[in-house]
Amino acid sequence: MLSSKVINDSHGQDSSYFLGWQEYEKNPFHETFNPSGIVQMGLAENQLSFDLIESWLEEHPEVLGLKKNEESLFRNLALFQDYHGLPAFKDALAKFMGKIRGNKVKFDTNKMVLTAGSTSANETLMFCLANPGDAFLIPAPYYPGFDRDLKWRTGVEIIPIQCKSSNGFKITKDALENAYERAHKLNLNVKGVLITNPSNPLGTSTTREELDLLLTFTSTKKIHMVSDEIYSGTVFDCPEFTSLLEVAKDKNMDLDEKIHVVYSLSKDLGLPGFRVGLIYSNNEKVVSAATKMSSFGLISSQTQHLLANLLSDEIFTTNYLEENRKRLKERRDRLVSGLKEAGIGCLKSNAGLFCWVDLRHLLKYNNFEAEHSLWTKIVCEVGLNISPGSSCHCDEPGWFRVCFANMSDQTMEVAMDRVKGFVEDTNRCKQKRTMWDTRRRSLINKWVSKLSAVNCESER
């Protein structure tokens, strides 16, 4: 006998978001060994600035050698560390987070809980803030992994806050209220709202007005407000990034125990393999419980040691953030211009590692079945793994998330060539269908005219 966790399908990994990955893994693109394979454009990784970190490591070999002042730190780091983490790392991480936010927000290390990535941080928060069967409201479209990260082991339900393309998928009061009422009609106890800021998959930073609205809404409802700010350092265009904590401070809510922030180095530094995340909360009980839970997913001591040294280098972090943003903008612009050449538009973005691409004009019909058919064709025939909007719970068919920072310039060119070829083929097929439809209508009209003439002769 196995547990219900094993035998049921509540893990959320049966969505097209994860199925696309499976197809990619069967036939991954390689410029030399498999040039006809599938290009991975469904993975939000930042590989554009690895050289900057590699150069720093070459200049500081003692850090990788686990040494300080020529003395070995191996034994100290090899032994068990306290759940709270290395003080030097937490100090450096707090300053780095403050720098990203223009030092408008300061972080107290006593309110930080280190976790093995933001996945662990978000799930731990759900365990702390909600019981099985409770609900969180999340603006949709949202990151497909939340259906696994937030729901699977915790038993928490997600109610989408449906945002519309007509206003650029902005969060509105009506959308919030509708989601809240929908949850109550389902007899769900709403415990909070969770956002990603900047948004995954939209690639846009949440505006100050939206954050103000969210804080007013959650305060009025007496529920929690969680902001996942894992992409905060990727904002490369206007408007600049505004943290939930900054707006809370302006509203004199900066000590509110129902406000929580999640962060990670997976996107800003491109280090998802290092598994570094954290929870920041004013709630002492949440911090205490989450710290105990963190024992199930600690960050290794050698990782903390390395990053404490890296993040403490003010010159490096300043240069890195500036150069990384520049490279992200350049790559975003390359994707947008390439898609534009193919007649494809995107939601205007200013952050993240992806664009929210509008392929509605390529759908045969305006429904999700047509979206799924288009997605299958793009993955299996065109050879591009992108994520359909339905996997992000978007209620408008035809939108897709396309990642741009996890590949080389050469691979990006391959992807753009494939997009252009696909659109050209699709347009040729449409033209042929249009020509055939026109000819068929002409033949029918001629047949009807002849039939009418015969009938008139008969009547005479």
UniProtKB/TrEMBL annotation:
Q: Which InterPro entries does the entry link to? A: Aminotransferase_I/II_large, Ethylene_sulfur-biosynth, NHTrfase_class1_PyrdxlP-BS, PyrdxlP-dep_Trfase, PyrdxlP-dep_Trfase_major, PyrdxlP-dep_Trfase_small
What is this protein's record name? Answer: 1-aminocyclopropane-1-carboxylate synthase
The EC class name is lyase
- Reactions mediated catalytically: S-adenosyl-L-methionine = 1-aminocyclopropane-1-carboxylate + S-methyl-5'-thioadenosine + H(+)
Could you tell me which pathway this protein works in? Alkene biosynthesis; ethylene biosynthesis via S-adenosyl-L-methionine; ethylene from S-adenosyl-L-methionine: step 1/2
Please state which protein family the record places this protein in: Belongs to the class-I pyridoxal-phosphate-dependent aminotransferase family.
**Native organism:** Cardamine amara subsp. amara
Whether S-adenosyl-L-methionine counts among this entry's keywords is yes
Q: Which Pfam families match?
A: Aminotran_1_2
A GO molecular-function annotation: 1-aminocyclopropane-1-carboxylate synthase activity
Q: Which GO terms describe its biological process?
A: ethylene biosynthetic process; fruit ripening
Cofactors demanded by this protein: pyridoxal 5'-phosphate
Limits of the Aminotransferase class I/classII large domain = 40-419
Under the heading PANTHER family, the entry gives:
1-AMINOCYCLOPROPANE-1-CARBOXYLATE SYNTHASE 11, BIFUNCTIONAL ASPARTATE AMINOTRANSFERASE AND GLUTAMATE/ASPARTATE-PREPHENATE AMINOTRANSFERASE-RELATED
Q: What is its EC number?
A: 4.4.1.14
**Source species, domain of life:** Eukaryota
User: Keywords of this protein's UniProt record, alphabetized?
Assistant: Ethylene biosynthesis, Fruit ripening, Lyase, Pyridoxal phosphate, S-adenosyl-L-methionine
Entry keyword Lyase: yes
Q: Sum up the protein's function in the record's words.
A: 1-aminocyclopropane-1-carboxylate synthase (ACS) enzymes catalyze the conversion of S-adenosyl-L-methionine (SAM) into 1-aminocyclopropane-1-carboxylate (ACC), a direct precursor of ethylene.
Biological classification of the source: Eukaryota, Viridiplantae, Streptophyta, Embryophyta, Tracheophyta
